[in-house]
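Figure 2 data, in text form.
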Amino acid sequence: MATRTKKTNPLLYIILGTLILLAIAGAILYVCGFRYIKTDDVKFMGFVYDGQPVSGSVSYNDGTKGKFKKDKTSAFGTVTYSTGDVYEGTFEGVMRHGKGKITYKSSGDVYEGDFVNDERTGNAIITYANGDKYEGHVENGRMSGKGKYTFADKSWYSGEFSDNKKNGVGEYHWSDGSYYYGSYKDDKRHGNNVVSVSLSDGMMY
């Protein structure tokens, strides 16, 4: 009795061939320095040099994406985001860390200062498109601690901030020479304070 030979499904050869080609392509990319790096907040896919990311794409938990490019021999690099914003500064891996500058396309505002683990934290100067400027400490991109906010009309506030608002002790000077010194809570005068307002006729109260 003749033994019947079972035919192998051609689809199996196609699948095996595809897997082999993918494995070869992956090996070639790996040898060329292509990597996928993931942190809690940032995902990077691209090329590395001496263990450090140098070019590729980044994506963030909020859905923002960007093009990443960094010098091979230094920590300096850039990210051009899908929003049109641009970061120029230093990195630690794929995280913005150290000194840097962000130019926001939609608003025209510019942040220049410290970054810690990809967050805008430390001392900074924020220049707003409307002519206002903030110089002082920030926490996660928000005014916090001691700082000075100068308005476009040259009036200014210098003192304590919390959560992007005047909170604590500070002094507010208007462009006409009037001023207030005392405590603030959530951008409003609060508690015991000393008020001194200079009038145009030289009188004070």
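Caption note: Confidence is low (pLDDT under 50) at residues 199-205.
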